[in-house]
Amino acid sequence: MDNGCHCAANCDRLSNPILYNILSQMDNSEASQNCFNYNSIAHRCNCELRRTVCLKRPSEICKEASAVLVKTVHFMKSLPAFNQMPPNDQFSLLKSCWAPLFILGLAQEQVDFEVTDTRADSMLKKILLNRQESPEMEREQPTMAGVSKLKSCLKKFWSLDLSPKEYAYLKGTTIFNPDVPDLKAALFVEGLQQEAQHALSEVVQLLHPGDQERFARILLTASMLQSITPSLIIELFFRPVIGQADLLELLVDMLFCR
Predict the structure, then answer these.
(1) How far apart, in whole angstroms, are the C-alpha atoms of residue 87 and residue 48?
(2) Is 48 in contact with 145 (CB distance < 8 Å)?
(3) Burial class (CB within 10 angstroms; exposed 0-12, middle 13-18, buried 19+) of 18
């Protein structure tokens, strides 16, 4: 049985003859004349996996997100052990961990947000204005499924009600990841992660002596961070602010600016 999306298949081309005619004129191939692929337009599909979304209050939320990102980089710069590592290792760890750290920052700062469907006329405007983006400029747009995963992760952290110390040590375990490829100081990083995990375990026992499962729940919840792609974070929270700029390059500038 086919469980795929049938939203596009159910759309009759005659329901939008103007748009169809424009597209047909742009592509004279036989395939385009016989059948236009509506699946290529994400916002036309009602499936959770395909619906593209954007922030409801971008000016407000992007400002809060930017403040969290600045705090995230400042936290990394404030760690003496991080500063002792070779610059290439610092860059590799930054590239690997900035998105999970940012999500932890959103959770700690209690940043909540709502999204709305991407404007339906965006594709038509591109066609009419003939502003086709080059392949390297095409980006993965935030979807409702991705946002739902992010919001679920935040809610789990909020339900744990972590203390500032718990957040700090959890961030330490996230930064110092010895599994990042090509680390020159991999053993040093592994030792730092173990120290951070041990410190987290101690503070959990101190603050919640009767909750023997809390430490495991924290680590389990933290494992969700890796399932949220950096591209979702960039496009949802920062693309409206940085435009075409590369966020990683901006983070590097922030990190290595002494």
Answers:
(1) 41
(2) yes
(3) exposed
- H or E segment and range at residue 248: helix 247-256
pLDDT digits (tens, 9 = 90+) for 69-120: 999 999 999 999 999 999 999 999 999 999 999 999 999 999 999 999 987 5
Q: For residue 183, give the nearest of 77, 88, 100 by alpha carbon.
A: 88
CA distance 97 to 132: 33
Residues shown for the chain: 258
Q: Which two tokens stand for residue 59?
A: 């000016």
φ, ψ for residue 137 (rounded to 5)?
Answer: -90, -10
Dist. CA 57–CA 60, nearest whole Å: 6
The helix or strand, by DSSP H or E, that contains position 115, with its residue range, turns out to be strand 115-117
Query: Using an 8 Å Cβ cutoff, are 231 and 139 in contact?
Result: yes
Q: Is 54 helix (H, G, I), strand (E, B) or coil?
A: strand
Report the distance separating Cα 126 and Cα 204, nearest Å. Answer: 53
Please report, for residues 161, 212, 250, the alpha-carbon distance to residue 204 in angstroms, rounded to integers and kept in the order given.
12, 9, 35
Count of CB atoms within 10 A of residue 189's CB? Answer: 23
pTM of the predicted model, to two decimals? 0.78
Q: φ and ψ at 55, to 5 degrees?
A: -65, 145
Task: Tell me which residue of 100, 61, 101 sits closest to 77, measured CA to CA.
Answer: 101
Determine the Cα–Cα distance for residues 228 and 151; give it in Å rounded to an integer: 10
> Token match 């494992």: residue?
223
